[in-house]
## 1
Amino acid sequence: MASNVGVDNLTAEVRESFSGTPDKRLQYMLDSLTTHLHAFVREVSPSIDEWEKAIDFLTRTGKTCTDLRQEFILLSDVLGVSMLVETINGVETPEATDSTVLGPFHMVESPARDLGEDISPESEGPRCVVSGRVVSVDGSPVPGAKIDIWQADTHGFYDVQQPGVQSIGNGRALLTADQQGRFNFRSVVPMYYPIPTDGPVGELLAATKRHPYRPAHIHFLVSALGFRELTTHIFIGGSDYIDSDAVFAVKNSLVKNFAETDDAATAAQYGVQNPFRHGRFDIVLHPEF
Ligand SMILES: [Fe+2]
């Protein structure tokens, strides 16, 4: 027999329906989701038409995802949820390098490259060198740390956005830090770019008069045995949109000055034409709890 609950009892009944969930963390999350989602619906009181539009939006968001495109991460990003999750998790490790969002473009495996290699061999434009060390919170080096790097080119495009123009792996690298935790690589200075606007997330930004741009940045995912994995970026100091990132991911500690460096000996050491731009980034990992 169908229950005949009034809307006043509905929330309690749905919460109760999850009470037998064996996984207590899952039960807690579903209980909280029900409570907050129902409160949201009561507050905004959507029409049937609006509810159908919301379902259609989420359906199209899912259908826009492919092996090379992640519209749901993008939706999480523009709603600030990705940054909130990163920040909540980073609170436990304040001594470590700040984390920021993964973003939607970590879609393919980065090619293993040697230290010092050019990670954007197909890209034209002004070259930069990025160098630094991976250390623990006590300053000791983390030898052999794995550093996964991905970035847009000088026109603001990732490899996966330009089939036939860039090969998969251009603008990406998996580096291994040396015995002193040191690393360096050559690349092009990335450009600020718009997040993809030809899907449902783009519709959301257009409907709300928000711009889609992200300031120029390079992504890092750093891991080492015995340490917490770090997901972060460095932002190119002075880039447009540094104060209005479409995905709310800028932290001041991650803004690096890619200084113009006019030093022939150092340029030769890194294998770039003089002058070049040099970004320095020391990465502090927190030991696993
Ligand atoms: Fe990015």
## 2
Amino acid sequence: MALTRPYAGQAEAWADGAALAYGPLARHLVARSPFEVAGVRALDAGAGSGAAGDALRAAGAQLVSADREPDMARWVAGPAVAADVTALPFRDGAFDLVVAAFVVNHLPDPVRGLAELRRVTRSGGAVLASTFSVHRAPAKGAVDQVAARHGFVAPAWYADLQACAHAVGGARVVEAALAEAGFVRWTVVEEPVDLGLDEPADVVRYRLSMPHLHRFVRALPVREAQDLEAEAVEAVRATGETFAPVVVEAVAIA
Ligand SMILES: C[S@@+](CC[C@H](N)C(=O)[O-])C[C@H]1O[C@@H](n2cnc3c(N)ncnc32)[C@H](O)[C@@H]1O
């Protein structure tokens, strides 16, 4: 399956909007580390603008970040490389802890990616990986529907990306992928994570910074973009639900 590179050039938008949701999600994942993070050699793989890396650094890890997109790698604080998680430029066992927040769900071959994350983790070290469950938060659909009323049509790459995400959108399938990737033991939890985003406007700001929607909204006349945003806020409010996406989180021991 051929995916283009939808995250190219998106570092600022990701840091500005998506991080509202991905920051708390990263902290939730990092908190699952089976050992003290202070002092460990850690890799934030598929770092984006550095949500997980920030949590790792705050906890005292010696951090390196990697992302396929050079502008993401430039954006993050500290040492970083532009690299693919399926072919990382690190020796075997280089890290005690590898965090892959919402990147395995981007891979056409998630087992290959997980095996590479395992390779760079020392024996007895841990890989923390998260994906979204196929059980989609209503707020996401609410914003997407408003965008569609304004003419948004999902690009083909987004359908490809969703197919990748669905393939690892559940605890059982992630467990099967971990086994195939050669991990020796793991815990996988699939549950809603309350991000503390109580304001519908913040949920909309996060959602509209996703690469597929961000490019569309940015191309609209300013007035129409403002209308879309206001309607999306009302649509999220109308769901009547706290925004708590269902997330699959894996703690896998190498
Ligand atoms: C959904 S974002 C998550 C970013 C960050 N981990 C976070 O939680 O905010 C996915 C990130 O993975 C990166 N990515 C996608 N495929 C990748 C690959 N094969 N190798 C490395 N990075 C990849 C994208 O460039 C993007 O920055």
